[in-house]
Amino acid sequence: PGSQCRKLRRQAHHSTTFARSPDAKVHMPLNRVYEIKQRLMTLEARDVELIECQTRIERERAEIAAAIAEAEADLAATVAAPVPGGKDPTLWLPDELLLSILVKVAMLEDARGCSAVCRRWRRLCLDQSVKDAWKYARWVLYAGGKREPRLLDANTNGVITTMCAGAGRTMYCGTAKGCIQVRSDNDGSLMQVLSGHTDRVNALAVGLDGTLYSGSKDTTIRVWSGATKAPIRTLEGHTNCVFALAVSETCLSSGDDDGTIRVWECSTGHLVHIFPKGPRFKSLASDGRSLLYAGATDRIIRVWSLPDCTLIRTLDITLEGPTNSDVQLVVDKQGTLYSMHNARTSGSIIRVCSGTDGALLRTLDTPRAGTFVLAPNGTLFTSLQYEFWVWPPGGRPPLEVEAPRPEKSSATRAHVALTVTCDGRLWVATRTTPEFISIF
Predict the structure, then answer these.
(1) CA separation for the pair 342, 282 (Å, rounded)
(2) Quick one: which of 265, 351, 262, 342 has its CA closest to 301?
(3) 149: which of 134, 194, 300, 321 is 20 to 30 A away, CA to CA?
């Protein structure tokens, strides 16, 4: 009958479905695998495309850089070439007037651009005495309030505690939060932030190969690649706050708050020597070659040779009159030692000593200062709060300049961090709220 036929058909349908179900379970993951493979092929093709694009961009950048170098060389050759007809259009100007125009234009424009105007300006721009006169004229304008520094907001990663110039036109700014800001020394823009320290960064130093060293209140020293800014290693061993760093050709010297000085090998990070505890060392400096200078609370400056750590000489700073235990050291490229000591009553004393035998060359009596730095051309900067003083080379009188104060801050006193770029520009960081950097 019809009802039995329908029942049989339903049973046959169910049996067929159950028979096919295992196959269906096999086909479902196969479809999923196919979809994943297709997506993977698409991503790999996109990756190859991006690599080719990056390669093309790098090739074009190299071509542009070569073209720029060629154009600059052509410009320099054209400027240096004799004027057609033998008549320089600036010959009728007296040297004094031409120099005055050059200095005023250079203060408004880039001095490198001025060197491409004519042969006489190019010759003057290459003269070191003209460069010093131009830089002094700029500071005269700053001191007279006729020129304003560039201001940068520095409230990105905490209060700036220390700064130093790096290789490749970069500036490093250590902060109270343990970060290190990497900024362009051209416009001050923030390019990168290095993280690793867990407490305040107290000291920064840059090696001859551009390697960055940072000392922190967390008792560690971190080593960073100068090219990629990637961390290289961490030096551990100090039991107190690391407050001073100095780099020579082969060694890094570090001082902590309990008076211990450790010497490390730059290439490997191995500990070379530990100086016995003595008076608390307040400052470290290196001539960049093989000498380490250390100023201590006993008012004695000690000079060691590296890497053998042999004591060469000691300099007694008590001979310059009553001073307290604060001492700061800076060594220029010629090895001349500058040491600043704050007098017990008022003012500060800067002693300039020969790097050869330690003989006293001269002394400078300055208003009381909290810190000082030395520019590559020999200009000396001392500072206390918002005021700082400029001591130009060549015996010119010092100039007093005031750093800008934050409009919204009621603070009348501010600690100042100073550093100088490779081309002699001064960076001033005021530790106030709001905080900013002034570039002179």
Answers:
(1) 13
(2) 351
(3) 194
